Amino acid sequence: MNSLVPNSCAECIVYSQCGGTGLPALDKMGCIPSGKPHPKDPNMDPRLSDEFWKKWDDVGGLLDMGCHTTIKGMSAEVLPRYIPKIHDGVSRNGLLKNVPWVAIPLHQLFISKKGNFRGCNFKSRAELEDYFRISANTKIVLVGCDQDRHIENFWKNHLKYALPASLKLLNIDLVTCPNYSLFTDMTGFHVLRNIKRIILTAERFSNAGIPPVLHLNAFRDQHWDTWARFLMEHPEITIVAKEFQTGSNEKEIKSLADLQQILGKAIHPILIGAARFHNTAKALFPSFSIMDSKPFMAATHREALVYDNKGLLKWKKTLLLNGMSIEGILADNIKLYPQYMERIQKSSRPPKPPKIDRRIPDEQELSFA
What is the CB neighbour count within 10 angstroms for residue 229? Predict the structure, then answer.
């Protein structure tokens, strides 16, 4: 009999959606932590009934992980290989010109400088362009990938303040969904809830008329299976996103390529913070985009991409006279960065020492002779 507090994964009411841990020994125990639950534990623990059902209802339940409306799509052909992420227009007097796309953090459109939520900070597209010092013909993608405090703040307030609709009034061209986190110490309920929150934000942006980009968070094969089923049900989705700033590695890019094979069609991934994996992505995808803020952050620290005497691009500290703007440095950094990505190495650090095998041997490996 299926249960909310199961003794094993097979007895769980969301087993068909979750798929378990993938490890038979753990599946026999289930994912509910041992010991007395703590009332302030953010994990979705069915033993804390009131909080559990509040989170369950918040996403419309976990027995149906689908979206039953068509997601507003966009042709991947319009996306460039590199999308620069900028955080403000400070230290720039003129507009950032001849840049087809820029990325802006989603939270900056509704969080005050003190970190308080206050609804949308901008009343028009022109006001937004003026603040970030970008030209009117530049397309804007909002980046939902952010710190947990920002994306949780968004979730808490996005319906109350009709944020998707207010962003549509700014003529936003594209938005990547918040990357609600999946952790290995979460219950399966919590993992499914965060996957569904990504799906729901995509649906709500789409309903407001803004093309959304699903952020494919996953750490088990079962999660990738969930995304594969969803994308098969929504062939209109061809652009997806994955974040590489907080630990994701080359294996994640290959998982995206495996997903592409399962779907039987090309997908266009927006790889956030993945310049070091440019050449890997180039070998695996017909088209893709790298998104990061390196040219912007370097410019704010007066660092410019320049050719050295060997014809290689290097970062070099640049002096500016008092009153001079960094806009020239930023424009050059953005222009040259795609060439820089072509040769960047995955890591400049020395190789890690070999791992010591500390696993517990299975019975066949033990000898009692």
Answer: 14
| Structure-block tokens of residue 66 | 């689908």
- H helices of 249-293, in order, are 250-263, 278-284
Per-residue pLDDT of the chain (369 residues; tens, 9 = 90+): 455 776 788 888 888 888 887 788 888 888 877 677 776 677 888 888 888 899 999 999 998 888 888 999 899 999 999 999 999 887 787 889 889 999 999 999 987 767 777 788 899 999 999 999 999 999 999 999 998 889 999 999 999 889 999 999 999 999 999 999 888 778 889 999 999 999 999 999 999 999 999 999 998 888 899 999 999 999 999 999 999 987 668 889 999 999 999 999 999 999 999 999 999 999 999 999 999 999 999 999 999 999 999 889 999 998 875 556 788 899 999 999 999 998 875 443 433 433 433 333 343 433 333
Q: Which domain CATH number covers 129?
A: 3.20.20
Contact 136, 166 (CB under 8 A): no
Q: Per the structure, how many domains does the chain have?
A: 1
Q: 175 has which bridge partners?
A: 142, 212
- Is residue 26 a part of any domain in this protein? no
67: in domain: no
Q: How far from 356 is each of 47, 185, 247, 353, 359, CA to CA, in Å?
A: 38, 24, 21, 9, 9
According to DSSP, the residues that pair with 215 across neighbouring strands are 241
In a domain, 348, yes or no: no
| Domain contains 132 | yes
Which DSSP symbol is given to 311? S
Q: Three-state SS across 71-114?
A: CCCCCHHHCCCEEEECCCCCCCCCCECCCCEEEEEHHHHCECCC
Of the candidates 57, 34, 8, 65, the residue with the CA atom closest to the CA atom of residue 222: 65
